[in-house]
Design goal:
The complex is a heterotrimer of chains A (257), B (428) and C (463). With 257 residues, chain A is α/β, with parallel strands linked by helices. Chain A is built from ten helices and ten strands. By secondary structure, chain B is mostly helical. The chains are: A alpha/beta (257), B mainly alpha (428), C mainly alpha (463). Bound molecules: adenosine-5'-triphosphate (ATP) and magnesium ion.
Chain lengths: 257, 428, 463
């Protein structure tokens, strides 16, 4: 990595994804830069989630899903035999559309990841991780007195921040977020957006969103997808003010169905 | 006008048919539930006599010449001596006028033939029993024979012909005499819960069968629960759809519908004849029943696993839990109440299962309470079946009482299952 | 004592293996703060421990079970060698008897044996001891070797988690194969014994013969009186009782289901449905008791008053009680399928001015028919395979009759009576039970598969 250029975290090269016979992504080429927020936008069903799930191999779980092409994380092919998915997912965390805390205590939710990755040797390690993660996710003040109460008892926005805390507890390098605010009200959404802004100091973030404003507010790079194809990819400012492509233009101005 | 009337009549007819149809439905339900009620009431009523037992008060002379012939006070030897004889003497003493051999024989059959044995084991229990009773005269209560018991309970009618009843005229006079003297008493029959089976109804109890059932179910649970849960996890979470998986699934579903007696044939041919396992043992019974219970546990556990939402799996996988960790740490604990419910329901069914156990020899007459899973044993439903075959009237009450005990266990098990389901039922 | 100690030793070794694996894994953990995966321990120390424990436990336990089966055979061979010429020319049965008495004498010094055999008994004891020790040593050393070899694998990048999880997955797969093995076991044992049966009795006699009396010669030389095995009366009896049972269960079950799903208030339904299901949960031996001791005498009494000759083991009593037992099978399955009929179909009918009853008869039942048929098929299969009620309430007499007041016998009753009690395993009498079991298995399986087919067809219609 050279000094004044930001390093490439992910390099997506010529990626095609199939669900059985149905092709969901066509020849995708995207670079995700370190410590930046990259937004993936596009109409429903265009393959945003699919691409996101390729980045931490969550698609492995789906039997019919086949992928070709290369996805390099720090220059290493994540689909190569040498990579252990479990270690990959420790490096690449994920936050889902619907908040999905485990039906366990808040403490156990956060500490679970560090535990299975052997990051905890004494109980104090766990306490420390829980505190820093919850603080970083902006949830600490609200829950510090009831760490033993179930995570499912929190409000939607709190749950989603808990899921973010859970993701950052394992100190990942990248966080993938799939429409993290779609189940939340505007105030909770605003909190999460602030949080994303803070988090990019430490993490690389890829976010899928349906809200143009959100993409414009939080991201530095934007990729626009349509029917499984990458239509346009560039700086967020440029995409939103001066898109090269007519389809992009139509979509961001809301003229698209 | 007539047209309207006709239509009206037609409508009336339709409504009548409607009412009839509804009445049939209600009648069907009433029939089924009525049958259930009558059956349960009949069984309960006929079980009541089994819970009491008639005792006779005797003044017994503990003659050393009979119970300690050697005079050495050797407890082991004494246990072998004829206590029945001194008890017999006790009742002869009450009726000194009875002298003829034939009449005396009738007199002594008022007593339970096992009474002496029970007295000796009560007095001579432990290593160093108090032997102060020797050569004293004491007042003791001993069990009556089952015929006397039946007579007292009113099952033998004194008004019918003498040779048609099991209690003869002279016996009736003696019984009346005893009753008048306050020497007869009906007590709660604890022995029914402490003793194993016996040839004499007054000594027959269900403890042996209950313990046998316990061991059998223990084996069933130990084998079928882990196997069933592991199989369910494999089929639900690991297997990819394939011919083999389909085959396994079809197999499990069909196994659930195979008649239980066929499992008995399997147990007989495979476990007993091929592997030479012991007959009548809870071990083999449990193995047979676990094969029968397996499909139930697999099917319910799979349903429970299915109801765990995928978002939980994604959450765990997303932080880098392996598939196995995801399942062991998150999915399986959430599915556990469902799996346990299935296991309890399966166990309840196994507890009532009779036919396959008859075939592997658990029908033998066993007077000892089994100590382990390889001892010969019987189980509750089989005990009921055995007693149903016995001619003595008293066994019928025992059998009904045993059914009540069996139903009690079933109710408890099902109640636990329902509670589990209520308590842990989650709506996602 | 020996197996208990062995188990304790093995258990101790397994725990030790776990500890050793964990310790070693913790020891190889130099660059904890490096973020690169290459510098981290691949698996948690616990997985390394489990890996060693599994390698310690699995081979030794497999070996133990093999030894459990082998040891008696080896001992028996050695004993025969010992006895040498003493048994040459002896009949096999006698040899077995001799061997078993030597075995028991070795176990129990009080057991009386020929003084001439005392030396053999002593040396047998010796051999037994040696074999015992040899087995123990073998098994324990397998555990130790497994432990030593596997713990050498532990290293930073050693994928202990993968190995452990793989072993678990294999165990799970094996568990799910138990069900298949069971079916296989059922089929093999039934087919095997049935073929042996047909060595004695021809297939056509069995399937079409009208006379069933499996009484076998009391003495070995009494060949002439070997029984006859025409199973038609049994099949007919089974059909008769099943028919009576279905005659009760189908209308009552169906009407109950209709009332529950279409007329009953939710409150009534919530109470009546579980109560009906109790009928299915009561052990069949209880029904058998009720049929034999209450229903049958009652029927006999009624018959007597009406001038009918009703046997105390009549098909009617058994069939009636069995029918009641089957009711919930019909009703709950039918209830499900009636409820599954889309509401739109009901609405359509009501909108035309049909009454509830008419809607049920003309719309719901035809639509739910396949489901109902399949529930009836399943219930029939239950009735055919039901044992205890008929054992207790129906008789043993193989009458070929369609008269429900007479005693008939069924397949299950015959299987049970032929096999309960002691018997040698080679007589046609016991083998006949397996042949009957095979027929029973095939028929219930067929009904079951048919029911599934029907219901799947029905599902396709609505999905
Ligand atoms: N598990 C699956 N099996 C088969 N097809 C799938 C699966 N998941 C997604 N697809 C298909 O792949 C295509 C892309 O889906 P994807 O979920 O990536 O869209 P998306 O852009 O995330 O849409 P949304 O904005 O609605 O979340 C869709 O056409 C979808 O139908
Ligand atoms: Mg999506």
């Amino acid at each position: 990595m050279s000094e004044n250029k930001i390093a490439n975290k992910y390099q997506v090269r010529d990626v095609n994804v199939f669900y059985g016979d149905k092709q969901a992504l066509f020849n995708i080429e995207v670079d995700v830069l370190e410590n930046q927020v990259t937004a993936l936008i596009g109409p429903s069903g265009c393959g945003k989630s699919t691409l996101l799930r390729c980045l931490n191999r969550m698609n492995d779980v789906i039997d019919v899903c086949k992928i070709s092409g290369d996805i390099l994380l720090d220059g290493q092919d994540i689909y190569s035999k040498k990579i252990d998915v479990v270690e990959l997912r420790a490096r690449v965390g994920m936050v889902f559309q619907k908040p999905n805390p485990f039906p366990k205590s808040i403490y156990d939710n956060v500490v679970y990841g560090p535990k299975i990755h052997g990051m905890i040797e004494h109980k104090s390690d766990g306490d420390e991780i829980v505190e820093t993660s919850l603080k970083r996710a902006g949830l600490w003040e609200e829950v510090k007195d009831r760490l033993d109460s179930p995570g499912t008892g929190l409000s939607g926005g709190q749950q989603q921040r808990l899921c973010i805390a859970r993701a950052i507890a394992v100190s990942p390098e990248v966080i993938l977020m799939d429409e993290p605010c779609s189940a939340l009200d505007p105030i909770a959404t605003a909190r999460i957006e602030e949080l994303i802004d803070e988090l990019k100091e430490k993490f690389t973030i890829v976010i899928v969103t349906h809200s143009m404003q959100q993409a414009a507010r939080v991201s530095q790079k934007t990729a626009f997808f349509h029917l499984g194809k990458l239509v346009e990819f560039g700086d967020t400012d440029q995409i939103f003010t001066n898109p090269h492509n007519q389809q992009t233009q139509d979509y961001i101005t809301g003229r698209y169905g | 006008m007539t047209d309207l009337q006709q239509r009206h009549q037609h409508l009336q007819k339709r409504y009548a048919a409607e009412r009839r149809f509804k009445a049939y439905g209600l009648a069907a339900i009433i029939f089924a539930l009525g049958f259930l009620a009558i059956m349960l009431v009949t069984i309960t009523v006929s079980a009541i006599p089994a819970f009491t037992q008639t005792y006779i008060k005797l003044n017994v002379e503990f003659d050393q010449k009979v119970i300690d012939k050697s005079g050495e006070r050797n407890v082991v030897e004494m246990r072998k001596s004829d206590f029945q004889k001194i008890i017999r003497q006790g009742i002869y003493d009450l009726f000194p006028e009875v002298t003829k051999r034939k009449a005396k024989k009738k007199l002594k059959t008022l007593l339970s033939s096992e009474a002496g044995y029970h007295i000796s084991s009560a007095l001579l229990s432990g290593d160093k029993p108090d032997l102060g009773f020797i050569d004293t005269k004491r007042e003791i209560w001993v069990k009556s024979s089952d015929d006397v018991d039946s007579f007292i309970k009113g099952f033998i009618n004194r008004d019918i012909d003498e040779d048609k009843r099991r209690i003869k005229d002279n016996q009736i006079t003696w019984i009346d005499q005893l009753q008048a003297d306050g020497r007869l008493e009906r007590r709660f029959n604890w022995d029914f819960f402490i003793f194993a089976d016996s040839r004499s109804p007054e000594d027959a109890g269900i403890r042996g069968a209950v313990v046998g059932s316990f061991f059998t179910l223990l084996i069933t649970l130990v084998l079928s629960f882990p196997l069933g849960v592991l199989a369910a996890v494999y089929l639900e979470e690991f297997s990819k759809p394939s011919k083999i998986t389909d085959f396994i699934e079809v197999n499990i579903n069909n196994l659930a519908a195979v008649p239980s007696i066929v499992f008995g044939l399997l147990g007989l041919a495979l476990f007993l004849n091929f592997f030479n396992m012991p007959r009548s043992a809870p071990l083999v019974g449990g193995m047979v029943l676990s094969l029968m219970t397996l499909p139930t546990i697999i099917i319910t556990t799979r349903a429970a696993l299915k109801s765990v939402p995928p978002s939980i799996r994604e959450a765990a996988l997303g932080i880098g839990a392996s598939k196995m960790q995801t399942i062991l740490h998150h999915v399986l604990p959430l599915a556990m109440p469902g799996a346990l419910t299935g296991a309890i329901i399966g166990m309840a069914r196994a507890l009532g299962e009779t036919a396959p156990l008859l075939m592997i020899g658990m029908v033998a007459f066993i007077v000892d309470i089994p100590q382990g899973v390889t001892d010969p044993a019987t189980v509750l439903p089989v005990q009921i079946y055995i007693w149903a075959d016995s001619p003595e009237r008293a066994f019928q009450a025992k059998m009904s009482a045993a059914i009540l005990v069996l139903l009690f266990f079933l109710v408890v098990m099902n109640a636990i299952a329902v509670m589990l389901r209520r308590r842990y039922e989650r709506r996602w | 004592m020996s197996y208990l100690t062995l188990l304790i030793i093995l258990f101790g070794l397994i725990v030790a293996g776990y500890q050793i694996g964990q310790r070693r894994a913790k020891a190889v953990k130099p660059k904890l703060n490096s973020k690169l995966p290459e510098h981290k321990l691949h698996s948690l120390p616990g997985f390394h421990g489990a890996y060693v424990a599994l390698w310690c436990g699995i081979p030794s336990f497999i070996l133990m079970f093999v030894w459990l089966f082998l040891e008696p055979n080896i001992l028996s061979l050695l004993l025969e060698k010992q006895l040498g010429e003493q048994i040459s020319g002896m009949a096999d049965g006698k040899v077995e008897l001799l061997k078993s008495s030597i075995r028991r004498a070795a176990e129990n010094s009080q057991f009386p044996v020929d003084t001439a055999l005392l030396a053999v008994v002593e040396s047998y004891k010796n051999i037994q001891n040696q074999a015992n020790i040899a087995g123990m040593v073998l098994i324990v050393s397998a555990a130790i070797i497994g432990l030593l070899i596997s713990q050498r694998n532990i290293a930073q990048r050693f994928m202990a988690r993968h190995k452990v999880e793989y072993i678990f997955a294999v165990i799970m797969l094996l568990s799910s194969l138990v069900a298949v093995l069971t079916t296989f076991g059922v089929v093999v044992s039934l087919v095997f014994e049935t073929i042996r049966f047909f060595d004695h009795v021809s297939v056509s006699e069995f399937l079409f013969g009208l006379h069933w009396s499996p009484q076998i010669a009391l003495r070995a030389d009494q060949v002439a009186s070997s029984g006859s095995f025409g199973a038609v009366p049994i099949f007919a009896g089974t059909l008769l009782i099943t028919f009576i049972a279905m005659l009760i269960a189908v209308p009552i079950g169906l009407f109950s289901a209709i009332y529950m799903s279409e007329y009953a208030s939710p409150k009534f339904r919530n109470i009546a449905k579980p109560l009906l299901e109790i009928l299915a949960g009561i052990p069949t031996v209880v029904y058998g008791f009720f049929a034999a001791l209450s229903v049958a005498p009652l029927m006999r009494g009624w018959g007597f008053e009406l001038g009918l000759e009703i046997s105390s083991e009549s098909a009617l009593a058994a069939g009636l009680v069995m029918g009641v037992m089957i009711i919930p099978f019909v009703s709950s399955l039918s209830d499900d399928v009636i409820n599954a009929v889309p509401q739109t179909m009901r609405d359509g009918s009501y909108a035309l001015g049909a009454t509830r009853g008419e809607t049920i008869k003309l719309v719901l039942l035809p639509a739910a028919l396949p489901g109902i048929v399949s529930s009836v098929l399943l219930a029939t299969s239950r009735a055919i395979g039901e044992t205890m009620i008929v054992v207790m309430a129906a008789g043993l007499a193989a009458n070929l009759t369609a008269n429900p007041f007479q005693a008939v016998t069924t397949v299950t009753v015959q299987i049970l009576t032929l096999l309960v009690g002691d018997q040698e395993f080679d007589s046609p009498k016991t083998l006949a039970a397996f042949a009957l079991g095979f027929v029973l298995f095939i028929i219930t399986l067929g009904l079951n598969i048919l029911a599934l087919k029907v219901v799947n067809k029905y599902r396709e219609k609505y999905d």
